């Protein structure tokens, strides 16, 4: 059909040339295509015609569909450039209400795409089918509005006359029926099937039945009618009345109701309004670069939340604030600002009007933000988590989880792919020809990232001999001041923002081509320049040598504990330590550097003498210390930013205060720093206290108090990339444990490199007394050289005139790229994609050392036409709170069954849904049943807190038979919201232990349990409860014999870990993990999963 359309364009052009050879402007052609992909394909074909040298026809293609910006849409009314013919490529958006005066010809593919919803799964998809005759007649009316016109339909006339439908399928037969059923309930004229059966085109009975089940799942309908259970009907609830009154999708109305319950009504209304209009973000860039730019801008609006809804909320609030402050004085200023931010100003205005309309309608239901004394107040850090809880509740059961749980060996594979480099800061290219000398082209590879605003100084490029991989590591640049948070891109977890940019670059198909020399000429060029030598057919580059490795103060392999002082604290993940053994040497250096006579003679004559990276003297606390120049300040007074290398702090120092090393002490510049960088080992910030994953100020203050006591003792867990991972001993406990006890931190796994280094240090320390003194010294130096990063020399690239060949690199790739899976039965066997415009379209494992399940929630789910793939839309990454997915499922599901392991000693899985038929135990709404396998310990007291929360939510929405609104006083509302806040914080702050995952064939089957096995609950609100109490099952105590067997098994694992020989593969019975060799046993014994298991059975390793 595309070929026929192109031929028609040629024919039309020839006709026009014959009829009006001297016309100043050419008439336009409107082509109707079914969808965006088809438009893009046709556009490419037309652009290819324009690229032909001897082509006599010049065409100007313009896209027209719902996703392009208003400015782009207006281009259809502009005249084409002189000599060009405008060709408008449109979906059915141009069928009606749009008149383009100069359109004389219409080419109609007679195809269309309609949104069809499967009521069973609630998945919607765009289905391609023939347009109706009515649609085709409407399209033909777009031609010849002000002149004679012609229409060409690309179907045989016989097929058009005899096979195509006269009219389109009515919306009631293909679209969701939730709002229709709710309005039918408001009529109070009988069951919805009876009322809807009177329609001119009544929907299928199965669709009505599934819609009723869905409304019961959402809380819009009760399970009963006047106290009697009914499958085909249910009394409308207060939530259902709100859903019927609001001009929104029912799930968005539920978002608002839950926002009211949790005290975040205003933000919930903004999110609901934003999801109801066309996207406020513009992604339809013409170039790969503009697509990347739009993604990065949206990522900045998301501000580390990993949520499209948060991005939308922040964009709206920023626009609203700028309008209120009169920063956007007119429409031109608004459009210019919106284009810079890749925002759609028309959508923002529609969103604002809809928000006002929603708030007015909510007033009629007495849903509003309470006065300050009645209103529950959330701190900013708490609000992020609460909004995500509200999102999880509103869009249940659109839950998606990450890949396999408890895969503790997975992290080793990540480091293997990257040749030992940190996956959180490293990506890689492939297809680099091994015949070339990679070091020569490092600068060209760095230039690939310039369009992403990643400077070459922030990039380190490495090449592996004999490998096609090019490793690109993004590093910290101490020059940058990140105090202005608006300039820093924040993303979830430990992965650097540059990794997200790099992966998006590949997805946007940005150019990754570098110019290279002929391999033989390159070898001669590099050898002549002294960059290295070709040895046995392998290029050996010259590396930067580490000076004085024996003078470094990093802990040696034999040092387990050290005493000293903490000199400077950035946070608990970055502070600096001065060993007590270095105190005298440090004081001697200070005395030498602060000789007044020498300082007077060591002034710099000119700022030009001071260069970046120079080691010099600068004042700190009224005494001169060694400092490294980071950058020149751009302030009015000439200042330099310096890093005090023997303290760890940075400061801006005036030029006249800087001093050079005088000749007698010039060698001091080469002495390594007398401090080393540290971070607290085996803990991470509490997600409840710090949703952004950064250490809080409170933890910094506590660490400062610890440092102020004077000399502290630290225990070295490992040293990775010249950073010591440590435990601070204080009295009978540790500072690390203290933070966990105060719920400011939680226990966590170290990464694979840290655990490997810890294992190596333990084995060397156990053998320390067997080494001779000279062997120990050699071991120390070798160890320090292994942990200090080595770099290739930074060399200038060869001139481009010498680079006459090209290599197209593939990538960048990251081993952290992952997939998600649907938790509902309807999507369990389908592959899942995230929409391209989402901040989560670059889907990475944000915390690779953490094997816990991560939950993603989608505001909408659609299916591809084949039905094999579902697409999650408007997604939100839930907080990295262990067990969060299970807790949210328990909190918001209609009902659930908890599953136990075979010995009934722990809960291992959750089956949630609408429930089952008590006569045959078949699920009521099987397609929406959710199965979650637990990876943390859930206890009966968690059920008690969940049921208290469900009761509070029910109480805020409870209406008796005959009531339309809850009869609840404002003070009671405030008290219930305060109780909800208290319970939520308590529930989420709990440190939960790892458990091994159990998968059973009965996980998705509703089972009958004896009443003696069920812990009794009281149905306080009876059948008028939207969130009925959840039943827990009785847990049995661990048997003594079984615990003893596990204790002996742990002894055996620790014994095997001491050997260096091969062992037979075995499974850890405590954690259900398969272990193939001694190294895997050692790493597994250091994992949080195993340590929690040992703690549970009270195992203590033998010394």
Automatic annotation (TrEMBL):
GO terms for cellular component: cytoplasm. Residues 7-188 form the Helicase C-terminal domain. InterPro entries: Helicase-assoc_dom, Helicase_C-like, P-loop_NTPase, SNase_OB-fold_sf, Tudor. It comes from the Eukaryota. Gene3D superfamilies: 1.20.120.1080, 2.30.30.140, 2.40.50.90, P-loop containing nucleotide triphosphate hydrolases (3.40.50.300). One of its GO terms (molecular function) is RNA helicase activity. Keywords: ATP-binding, Cytoplasm, Helicase, Hydrolase, Nucleotide-binding. Its EC number is 3.6.4.13. It catalyses: ATP + H2O = ADP + phosphate + H(+). It is an enzyme of class 3 (hydrolase). The keyword Transport does not apply. Pfam families: HA2_C (PF21010), Helicase_C (PF00271), TUDOR (PF00567). PANTHER family: ATP-DEPENDENT RNA HELICASE (PTHR18934), ATP-DEPENDENT RNA HELICASE TDRD9 (PTHR18934:SF113). This is Probable ATP-dependent RNA helicase spindle-E. It comes from Musca domestica. The lineage of its organism: Eukaryota, Metazoa, Ecdysozoa, Arthropoda, Hexapoda.
């Amino acid at each position: 059909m595309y070929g026929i359309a192109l031929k028609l364009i040629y024919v039309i052009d020839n006709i026009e040339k014959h009829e009006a050879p001297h016309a100043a402007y050419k008439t336009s052609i409107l082509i109707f295509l079914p969808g965006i992909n088809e438009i893009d394909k046709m556009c490419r074909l037309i652009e290819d015609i324009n690229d032909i040298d001897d082509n006599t026809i010049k065409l100007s293609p313009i896209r027209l569909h719902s996703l392009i910006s208003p400015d782009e849409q207006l281009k259809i009314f502009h005249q084409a450039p002189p000599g060009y013919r405008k060709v408008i490529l449109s979906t059915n958006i141009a069928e009606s209400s749009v008149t383009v005066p100069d359109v004389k010809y219409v080419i109609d593919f007679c195809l269309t795409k309609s949104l069809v919803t499967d009521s069973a799964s609630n998945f919607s998809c765009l289905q391609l089918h023939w347009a109706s005759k009515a649609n085709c007649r409407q399209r033909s009316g777009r031609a010849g509005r002000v002149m004679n016109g012609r229409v060409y339909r690309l179907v045989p006339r016989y097929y058009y006359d005899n096979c195509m439908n006269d009219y389109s399928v009515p919306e009631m037969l293909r679209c969701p029926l939730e709002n229709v059923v709710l309005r039918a309930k408001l009529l109070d004229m009988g069951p919805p099937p009876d009322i809807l059966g009177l329609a001119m085109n009544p929907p299928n009975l199965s669709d009505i039945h599934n819609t009723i089940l869905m409304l019961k799942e959402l809380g819009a309908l009760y399970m009963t009618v006047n106290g009697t259970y009914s499958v085909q009907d249910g009394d409308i609830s207060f939530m259902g009345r709100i859903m019927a009154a609001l001009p929104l999708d029912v799930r968005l109305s539920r978002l608002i109701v839950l926002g009211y319950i949790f005290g975040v009504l205003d933000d919930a209304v903004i999110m609901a309004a934003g999801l109801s209009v066309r996207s406020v973000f513009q992604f339809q860039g013409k170039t790969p670069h503009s697509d990347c730019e739009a993604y990065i801008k949206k990522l900045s609006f998301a501000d580390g939340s990993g949520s499209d809804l948060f991005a939308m909320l922040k964009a709206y609030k920023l626009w609203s604030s700028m309008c209120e402050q009169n920063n956007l004085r007119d429409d031109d200023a608004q459009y210019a600002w919106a284009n810079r931010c890749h925002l759609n100003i028309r959508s923002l205005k529609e969103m604002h009007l809809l928000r006002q309309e929603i708030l007015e309608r909510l007033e009629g239901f007495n849903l509003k933000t309470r006065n300050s004394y009645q209103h529950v107040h959330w701190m900013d850090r708490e609000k992020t988590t609460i909004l995500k809880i509200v999102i999880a509740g509103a869009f249940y059961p659109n839950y998606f989880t990450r890949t396999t749980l408890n895969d503790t060996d997975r992290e080793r594979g990540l480091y293997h792919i990257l040749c030992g480099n940190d996956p959180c800061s490293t990506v890689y290219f492939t297809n680099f020809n091994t015949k070339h000398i990679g070091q020569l082209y490092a600068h060209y590879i760095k230039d690939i990232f310039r369009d992403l605003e990643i400077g070459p100084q922030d990039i380190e490029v490495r090449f592996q001999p004999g490998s096609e991989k090019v490793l690109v590591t993004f590093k910290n640049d101490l020059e940058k001041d990140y105090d202005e948070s608006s300039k820093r891109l924040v993303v979830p977890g430990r992965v650097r923002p540059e990794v997200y940019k790099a992966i998006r670059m590949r997805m946007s198909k940005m150019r990754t081509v570098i110019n290279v020399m002929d391999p033989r000429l390159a070898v001669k060029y590099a050898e002549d320049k002294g960059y290295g030598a070709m040895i046995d057919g392998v290029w050996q580059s010259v590396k930067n040598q580490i000076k004085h490795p024996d003078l470094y103060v990093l802990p040696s392999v034999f040092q387990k504990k050290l005493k000293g002082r903490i000199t400077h604290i950035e946070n608990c993940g970055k502070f600096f330590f001065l060993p007590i053994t270095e105190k005298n040497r440090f004081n001697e250096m200070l005395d030498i550097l602060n000789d007044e006579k020498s300082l007077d003679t060591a002034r710099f004559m000119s700022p030009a003498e001071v260069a970046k990276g120079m080691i010099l003297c600068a004042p700190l606390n009224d005494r001169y210390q060694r400092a490294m120049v980071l950058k020149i300040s751009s302030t009015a007074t000439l200042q330099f930013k310096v890093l005090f290398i023997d303290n760890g702090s940075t400061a801006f120092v005036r030029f006249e205060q800087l001093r050079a090393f005088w000749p007698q002490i010039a060698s001091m510049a080469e002495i390594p720093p007398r401090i080393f960088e540290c971070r607290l080992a085996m803990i991470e910030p509490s997600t409840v206290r710090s949703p952004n994953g950064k250490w809080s100020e409170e933890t910094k203050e506590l660490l400062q108090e610890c440092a102020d006591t004077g000399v502290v003792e630290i225990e070295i867990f490992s040293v990775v990339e010249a950073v010591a991972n440590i435990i601070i001993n204080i009295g009978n406990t540790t500072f690390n444990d203290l933070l966990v006890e105060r719920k400011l931190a939680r226990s966590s796994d170290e990464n694979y490199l840290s655990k490997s280094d810890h294992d190596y240090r333990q084995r060397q320390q156990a053998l320390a007394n067997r080494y001779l003194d000279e062997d120990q010294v050699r071991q120390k130096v070798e160890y320090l050289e292994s942990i200090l990063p080595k770099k290739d020399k930074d060399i200038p690239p060869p001139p481009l005139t010498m680079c006459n060949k090209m290599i197209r690199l593939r990538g960048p790739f990251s081993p952290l790229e992952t997939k998600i899976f649907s938790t509902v039965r309807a999507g369990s066997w389908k592959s899942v994609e995230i929409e391209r415009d989402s901040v989560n379209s670059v889907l990475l494992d944000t915390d690779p050392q953490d094997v816990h399940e991560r939950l993603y929630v989608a505001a909408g789910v659609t299916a591809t036409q084949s039905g094999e793939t579902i697409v999650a839309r408007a997604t939100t990454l839930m907080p990295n709170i262990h067990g969060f997915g299970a807790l949210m499922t328990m909190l918001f599901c209609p009902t659930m069954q908890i599953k136990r392991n075979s010995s009934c000693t722990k809960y291992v899985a959750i089956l949630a849904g609408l429930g089952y038929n008590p006569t045959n135990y078949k699920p009521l709404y099987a397609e929406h049943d959710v199965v979650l396998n637990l990876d943390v310990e859930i206890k009966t007291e968690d059920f008690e807190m969940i049921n208290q929360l469900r009761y509070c939510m029910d109480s805020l929405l409870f209406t008796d038979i005959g009531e339309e609104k809850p009869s609840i006083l404002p003070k009671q509302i405030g008290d219930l919201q305060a109780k909800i806040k208290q319970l939520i914080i308590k529930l989420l702050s709990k440190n939960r232990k790892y458990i091994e995952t159990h998968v059973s064939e009965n996980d998705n089957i509703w089972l009958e349990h004896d009443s003696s096995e069920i812990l009794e609950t009281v149905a306080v609100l009876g059948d008028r409860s939207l969130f009925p109490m959840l039943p827990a099952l009785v847990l049995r105590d661990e048997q003594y014999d079984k615990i003893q067997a596990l204790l002996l098994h742990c002894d055996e694992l620790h014994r095997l870990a001491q050997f260096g020989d091969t062992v037979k593969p075995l499974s850890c019975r405590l954690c259900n993990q398969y272990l193939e060799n001694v190294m895997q046993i050692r790493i597994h014994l250091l994992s949080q999963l195993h340590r929690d298991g040992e703690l549970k059975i009270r195992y203590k390793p033998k010394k």
